[in-house]
Amino acid sequence: MRTLNLNLLAAVGLTALLAATPAFAQDNSVNINQMSSSNAAEVEQVGDSNSVDIYQYGADNTASASQEGSGNSAAIHQAGSSETGTVSQLGDSNSAHLDQLGYQNTADVAQEGDNNNAYVLQLGSDNSATIAQTGDSNTATAVQAGSGDSLDLTQEGDDNSVLTGQGGSGNSMLLTQTGNSNSMALSQSGADNSITANQTGDDNSLEASQYGSGHMLNVNQAGSGHSAVVTQSN
C-alpha cells in the first residue's frame, strides 16, 4: 500500500510539474498604467520574452496587444482621449510603438514574421493609420500631425522601408510593397491630397511630396531597380 501511495504521489507531482513548467518558461512582461477615466486595456501573450507597455493618461482610450512568439515588444502610449491602438505580433523580435497624443485617432499594426519594426505618432485628431507587415526586417514610420488624415500600408517581403508624414487635413495614402528592399519616403501638407503607390519587385525607390491641396499621385513600380521623385505644389 505504501508503494502504491508513493507511486500515486509521484504521478501527481509529475503532472503538476509538467502543468506548471510553461508558466516558468514564459518570461513575458506586461506594464499597464491607466489614469483619468474610462480607459480599457487588453493583452494576450503566448511564447517567451515578449513585452507590452501600455500608458493611458487621457480618457476613453482603448489599447489592445496580442503577441505570439518570442522577443516581441509592443508599446501603446495614449495621452489624448478617445484613441484606439491595436498591435498584433506573430513571430520573433518584432517591435511596434504607438504614440497617440491627440483626439479620436486610430492606429492598427499587424506584424507577421521576424524583426519587423513599426512606429506611429498621431498628434492631431480623427487620423487613422493601418500597417500590415508580413516577412522579415521591414520598417515603417508614420507621423500624422493634422486631422482626418489616413494611411493604409501593406508590406510583404523582406527589408522594405516606408517613411510617411502627414500634416493638414483630409490627406490619404494607400501604399503597397511586395518584394524585397523597396523604399518609400512620402509627405503631405495641405488638404485633400492623395497618394496611391505600389512597388512589386526588388530595390525600387519612391520619394514624393505634396504641398497645397487637391493633388493626386498614382505610382506603380513593377520590376527591379526603379526610382521616382515627385513634387506637387500649388
Helical fraction equals 10-25%
Secondary-structure content class = mainly beta
Total number of beta strands: 19
Number of domains: 1
Mean pLDDT: 92
How would you sum up the major sheet? Answer: 10 strands, parallel
Summary, kept brief:
The protein is mainly beta. Helices cover 10% and strands 64% of the residues.
SSE map:
Layout: H1 2-25, E1 29-34, E2 40-48, E3 51-56, E4 62-70, E5 73-78, E6 84-92, E7 95-100, E8 106-114, E9 117-122, E10 128-136, E11 139-144, E12 150-158, E13 161-169, E14 172-180, E15 183-191, E16 194-202, E17 205-213, E18 216-224, E19 227-232
Parallel strand pairs: 1-3, 2-4, 3-5, 4-6, 5-7, 6-8, 7-9, 8-10, 9-11, 10-12, 11-13, 12-14, 13-15, 14-16, 15-17, 16-18, 17-19
Descriptive overview:
With 234 residues, the chain is mainly β. The protein has one domain (28-232). The chain has one helix at residues 2-25, and strands at residues 29-34, 40-48, 51-56, 62-70, 73-78, 84-92, 95-100, 106-114, 117-122, 128-136, 139-144, 150-158, 161-169, 172-180, 183-191, 194-202, 205-213, 216-224, 227-232. The longest helix has 24 residues, at 2-25.
